[in-house]
Amino acid sequence: MYDVIIIRYGEMGLKGKNFKKFSLALQQDIKRRLAGLLDYQLDTTYGRIFLRLNSRLEEMPQEAVKSLKLLPGIVNFSPALSLGPAADLEKIAGSAAKLVARELKQNSGTFKVETNRANKDYPLTSPEISREVGGLVLRKVNNSLTAPQQELTVDVHEPDILLELDIRKDSIYIFTRRYQGSGGLPLDSAESALLLLSAGIDSPVAGWQMMRRGARLNILHFHTPPYTGEKALEKVRDISRRLARYNGETRLFLSQITKIQREIQKHCQSDYSITILRRMMMRIASRLGASKNLQAIVTGDSLGQVASQTLANLRTISTAADLPVLRPLLTLDKQDIISQARDIQTYNISIRPHQDCCTIFIPENPITRPYPEPTAEIEKALPVEELVTDALEKIEEETITADL
Amino acid sequence: MSVYFDHSSTTTCLPSAVKAVVETLREDYGNPSSVHKLGLKAEKILKQTRKTAASLLEVEAEQIFFTSGGTEANNLALRGPVKNRRQRPLHIISSLIEHDSVFRTLKDLNSKDVEVTFLKPDSQGIIDPARVEQALKPDTILVSIMQVNNETGALQPVEEIGRLSKEHSGNILFHVDAVQGLGHLPVAIQDWQADLVSFSGHKIGAPKGTGFLYVRKKNLLQPIITGGDQEKRLRSGTENVAGIAGLGAALKKLPRLKESNQPEKLLRLKKYFLQQLARKIPEARVNTPRESAPHIVNFSLKKLPGEVLVNAMSSRGFYISSGSACHARRNIESRVLKSMGLTGGELQGALRVSFGRENQPEEVDRFIAALREEYDLLQ
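YS: structure for the whole thing
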């Protein structure tokens, strides 16, 4: 059946001088993600990447589909049949009928043919090809149907099956499926960033959004032993392993902030405690990030989702950071975040019941409008520099590999 | 050196049990159902363990049915009779302090036709036999009460509950979950008038994945696992021969306990622990009643969630549980302690220590000192 997979990329095609760099990054990532899943030769022509399969496939392996759907830089892809550039209509229709009959499966259905003729040497025009091949396919498929209630008909407005013919100089490609990719830009086409990962639902999605735009991630997780245990840490590792599918081998930094939490609890007004803790996290993240040549901090904040995610809070927290704080989920609703978390398969790990931060440190009424000045004033009770330096010294680093 | 005070969760596999497992895996790999010589050898191992168990419990070997552990034994003991009786509606009596493998199984069986009464314990965590008596109805077919509660160690009056149930009707079956009792207290099946008694291997130094159910008469139950008719049709599936060899080895090491012969060493250790706890950590509220197993102490430290102290102690090499192991994982309040009337900090700050035969008083000293330090540091 299929002998080639056509991969279409989006806006990186618009990159002028840098196109080659982006294209190579995408090819690298495709090779990494498909390793062991498909046997193919990769070949590029302007505007497309072709994976020429070393042996024909009856069906795309599910794992390969999943990998390509979540591979940054790919807009969509199609498993296809290829014929020589001079193949006649009869031959094209023969192959096309096989694909269409398969899509028809059990019930009756409608179809339409669309032709894209890049090879102007082909003797017929696009509309002519569509019409002729459409007629031949209709006859061939209906002749081959055995069940009496089955029938293939034509519907040019809302067809069930869209048969596409791509007439190119090198080959003619025939396909009926376009799998949506994630779009974005290939991994590594941007610089690296530091993701602040909790064990919750949001931050892995924020990380994914950055990777989707080509940034590679380092991950920083804050934990509070003994208030949080080894099992909560393993949950964070599991989420990181999942993200490493997209990110490749990933550095995970673990920072203990028990001491900082206790100092805040002792010295600061309780309604400011979350804001101040987050400011401390920003200081640690900025210093760590700068030392590892990371260009930004990424968080899973979504505007107004919880008390510490008001604009005033986000502002006051950001002012403590030296690196820019990027919040890709800022305007997303929780349901959209959950749906993306399911797509990247971190959701089921995130909802495992382990506290990521002990509830005894959470104040009854966190302040929703903590402006920078009063916050800084309250913060003066803390030995900020000493606590940050101490936390940085105690950071542990682990190397996380993908869980596949 | 680390200190393991979590024997109610599981025990280390005894060296003799390990040896028995490995030898069986290497030498006696036959299927007990096979007719050839290797099959016979494997069957002999089952026979031996069955005999060891039966003689320890003073019952007949054919009354022992191997399962994959305590949970399966409890499932068989509860689902088996319900399946066996045509009578509908029917009624079952149990309690709020049972292990999840009993509690949730009964919740699952509970339906229009199967009514289950879950009795509340008193503030000591003990089921009052009078309550069982009050709950008995004409259509009651089964009473299921554990011997020793796994979280508090509270000893249940199973003998009296058995007597009252049988007085009510000779047709009532009495099931006892003796998973925490075996090896720590006399298991007097005849005195209890029990028809069904569950046991687990990994609580007594045998490997995980082993256990058995005492069944007074095989026709009281229908199987819940069907297949090749192993275990006289009551539990299909090729027997875990190596595990059962290990179970046999562990059972051989158990003391033959009687009212007059209690495990003195464990009793002394528990007494010492309670003394030291009262002296060094007077804030602790002990949730274990006087009438309790020799190996379990449950207490609450109000100001911190139990899990926090479990984590803190774990990082210093002391292994204990909060509430019970399963609760620690699911991070919910203990149903058992809640049913005893505990609330707030006492409920959330519950810890369980459980001793084994290898533990020493010196370990108690180190543990209490470390706990004192962590509690002061953290609160």
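YS: worth flagging: Residues 324-330 of chain B have pLDDT under 50 and may be disordered.
IM: good catch. Also Residues 303 and 345 of chain B are 6 Å apart (CA to CA).
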